[in-house]
Amino acid sequence: MTAETLARSGPLQQLTDRLAELPRTVQVVPESFVAMIDLRLDPAGAAGSDVVSYLGVDLPTTPSTWVETDAVRVIWLGPDEWLVTSLSRTPQDLEAGLRDAVHGRGAVVDVSGQRTALRLAGEHARDVLSAGCAIDLHPRFFRRGAAVQTLLGLASVVLLALDDTGTSYHILVRSSFAEYLARWLLDAAIEHSDS
Amino acid sequence: MQLITCPYCGPREEVEFHYGGQAHVAYPADPSALSDEEWAHYLFFRDNPRGPFAERWVHALGCRRWFNAVRDTATYRFHHIYRLDEPKPETT
Ligand SMILES: [Zn+2]
User: Fold this and answer.
1) Domain A13-32+113-190 adopts which CATH fold?
2) Matching fold, domains A13-32+113-190 and A35-110
3) Residues 6+ apart with CB under 8 A from A110
4) Domain map of chain A by residue range?
């Protein structure tokens, strides 16, 4: 008898087939295992500048914005709080690096398991969001670099605009709400099916 | 739906906010010196004006920050919204 290896799985795994059947104009793609670190510190203090040199990018201080480098994305969550995400770094590595830089002058917590990430893309991506989100999503206001914490459907999300045309978004949702939100998106996408 | 202007995030729907009661209720300097009645007044007794009222609110489903607001309890209109580190605006 050989020991079984447990495969990593996400909360949207059972919906993979249904999400794959979505029309071309509304694509929902789960992004698995994103490293996410919650960072809290005074951006004006010394910890702030040490973190900036570690990350290689300024912490965004304008509310509801995000910035990125090749390795990380930094999302504004509050005047003293950011979410640092990465697809290329492990949560352990990113947390340890940030903790070194902060050096006790703030808080660094691995929250990778807290939220599930998904990409919403396509010609009708904005229309689908508008069905359940009160934010003004017109690209004149909500464009690449914007990140709001708000309600989508009845789920609390962080919504990021990835382009300037309202056709590409990144959604972070509490993992326990991820299936609900994916089913809500499947339902909202019906009216935009190709046929 | 009514919009409330978070001092950080800007105008958002009221469902994103939670109410936190009367603002500027100072914690007693020496709680152990208070009588039961005085302590009960601190804990449970609040103003209940008809008109402008300074209140605490939290942007619970957004940035999760507390702030203060002067709201008219008769009209629901928000007259002032200010951060916790800003003084209470003059109201007439
Ligand atoms: Zn806010």
Assistant:
1) Gyrase A; domain 2 (3.30.1360)
2) no
3) A35, A36, A37, A91, A92, A94, A95
4) 13-32+113-190, 35-110
SS3 assignment, position A81: strand
Q: Using the beta-carbon criterion (under 8 Å), do B9 and A64 form an inter-chain contact?
A: yes
pLDDT beneath 50, residues of chain A: none
ipTM, 2 decimals?
Answer: 0.89
Tell me, what's the pLDDT at A1?
Answer: 63
Residue A79 confidence (pLDDT): 95
Q: What is the distance in A from the centroid of ligand 1 to the CA of B15?
A: 12
- Cβ contact (<8 Å) for A78 and B1? no
- C-beta atoms of B62 and A150 within 8 A: yes
Label the pairing between strands A155-161 and A147-152.
antiparallel
- Domain range B3-29+40-82, CATH class: alpha beta
Q: Best of B2, B17, B58, B61 to disrupt the A interface by mutation (most A CBs within 10 Å)? A: B61
Encoding tokens for residue A125? 């991506």
- The residue ranges of every structural domain in chain B are 3-29+40-82
Residue B16, chain A, CB below 8 Å: the answer is: yes
Please tell us whether the domain made up of A35-110 is placed in CATH 3.30.70.1520.
yes
- Report the first-to-last Cα separation within chain A, whole angstroms: 51
